[in-house]
Amino acid sequence: MLARLFKKARPAHTEAAEATGGSALHKMRAGYADWRFQRDIAAIMASLDRLSDRRLALIGVRRDALFDAVSDLMLRAADDRAIADEVIAMLERAPAAQKPREDIATPASDAARVAA
After folding, report:
1. Where does the record place the region Disordered (predicted)?
2. Per-residue DSSP letters for 21-69?
3. Is the pLDDT higher at 74 or at 2?
4. 3 in helix, strand or coil?
């Protein structure tokens, strides 16, 4: 069951490094990111497992569904990270400096027009 979770929620830069045959440093970073991801899941599971059934019920989780809840949480976080990476990539590809349009009034141009 953990293999399913680790397979689906791999960081995007890990897959990119493998697809491009990235450098040794890139592969090392990807391996470290995978290790951190697995360690984080284990820490979350251990922390939630120590809670009593009453406290788990307060946060809306049943003990028998604890693994599924953590899996959903991690998959959602991975999806959010992937979306954020895509947005950052789109912003980096955008033209760096665009000339402002002349027909749009700016506060400085309004002040100059009023003073004249």
Report:
1. 96-116
2. T--HHHHHHHHHHHHHHHHHHHHHHHHHHTS-HHHHHHTT--GGGHHHH
3. 74
4. helix
Distance CA 9, CA 25 (A): 22
Assess contact for 33 and 11: CB atoms under 8 A.
Answer: yes
Distance CA 2, CA 89 (A): 30
- How far apart are the C-alpha atoms of 82 and 77, rounded to whole Å? 9
Q: Where are the domains positioned within the chain?
A: 12-93
Distance of CA 1 to the CA centre of its chain: 22
Q: Please, what is the average pLDDT of the chain?
A: 77
* Spatial CB neighbours of 18, under 8 Å, sequence gap ≥ 6: 27, 30
DSSP 72-114: HHHHHHHHHHHHHHHHHHHHHHS-S--PPPTTS--HHHHHHHH
Q: Write the pLDDT tens digit of every residue in 33-44.
A: 888 988 988 899
Given pLDDT bands bounded at 50, 70 and 90, which one contains residue 25? confident
